[in-house]
Amino acid sequence: MSNTTGSGMGDLQSLTNSITAVTSPFRLYLSDLLQKYQPLDEGAIADYIPELALALPEWFGICAVTTVGQIFEVGHCKQLFTIQSISKAFIFGLALEDHGREYVNSKVSVEPTGEAFNSIVLDEATNRPYNPMVNAGAIATADLIKGNNGTERLKRVLDMFKRYTGREHDINVPVFLSERATGFRNRAMAYLMRNFGMVGDNIDETLDLYFQQCSIMVNAHDLAMLAATLANGGINPVTQERAIQEQYVQDVVSVMLTCGMYDASGEWTYRVGMPAKSGVGGGITALVPGQLGIGTFSPLLDAKGNSLRGLKVCEDLSRDFGLHIFNAATGDRNLEEWIAGSNGTDDW
Ligand code: GLN
User: Fold this and answer.
1) Options 18, 85, 178, 278, the catalytic residue
2) Does residue 214 line the site of ligand 1, with CB under 6 A?
3) pTM (2 decimals)?
4) Active-site residue flag, 210
5) Average pLDDT, whole number, for the chain?
């Protein structure tokens, strides 16, 4: 198993690994991407609550983890930020494990909306929210997470993220409290869905869970691990722990592909062609099934709420290495060859 604990003094293996990773062509490529897009300073930091506005515009990190557990990272990959909407994809997976496909689909559809993530719109025929990636669908999905009380449900969510990333996660309490104090729109959606029987009686507990899941702190490395675990059929490629039952990986990944990038999902799939999920904290998690997970972090967002530098990085990676899932031709560069320079993990 790979060593991910970092190099202590005298730990020759780790030192060798980190030197190898530093000089690997793929890492150099990522570091060039970082320099190429660092000057891009358009876009805006989310400021619908004051805590998010504290992010620094220069923060920028890129991490890639292969399905055999090689880790490449450049820039601010240890900087913590809140996961926000990226959590929705993984909570959908947990809801599927808790109830199975049919029941979950009776409460939330899997159809893209072409509308903003916070739009208040339900499918007129069935009263279901459109998909688990818009807020209404995410709240209906959070409602399905089992547990005897709010604490137990949150613990199950945090345990799940730990299986994916290999480390403990905390909630950013000020972000959670602000989301809770100001989330009137989300609250309105939840009560509308209660009216239609799409969520149960524990509305306030479920809203708390939703605000908490959005406030989980992660870094770019975690986002790459989340994606790499999905790319690896649900098994964390570093710890070898299973994070989600294999049968549900395709559910999560296909909804990421069709609905993961808000109302830019169509264009993203066309240009980048990787199942992905973004969050207003500035993160993007993207995967190449069977090969790679990518995590990017830069808090400057475009008008649709996607990280601008993150979009550019994924677009370049897709083009340069031919990673678009529907691309039958090979890219200019062959990923296998470029990562071959590293036989270990980065100095994490
Ligand atoms: N907490 C945010 C909300 O519910 C999540 C938004 C996001 O990342 N798009 O509005």
Assistant:
1) 85
2) yes
3) 0.91
4) yes
5) 91
Q: What band does 340 get if pLDDT is binned at 50, 70 and 90?
A: confident
Indicate the top mutation candidate among 47, 82, 85 to test ligand 1's pocket, ranked by most ligand atoms within 8 A of CB: 85
Domain 27-339 class in CATH? alpha beta
Give me the percent of the chain exceeding a pLDDT of 70.
Answer: 91
Return the closest-CA partner of residue 136 out of 96, 176, 98, 189: 189
CA of 14 to the centre of ligand 1 (A): 39
Q: Measured from the CB, is residue 83 less than 6 Å from ligand 1?
A: no
Q: Is 186 annotated as a binding residue?
A: yes
Residue 229 binned pLDDT confidence (cut-offs 50, 70, 90): very high
Ranges of each domain in the chain: 27-339
Residue 16 has pLDDT above 80, yes or no: no
DSSP 233-300: TTB-TTT--B-S-HHHHHHHHHHHHHHTTGGGHHHHHHHT---EEE-TTSEEEEEETTTEEEEEE---
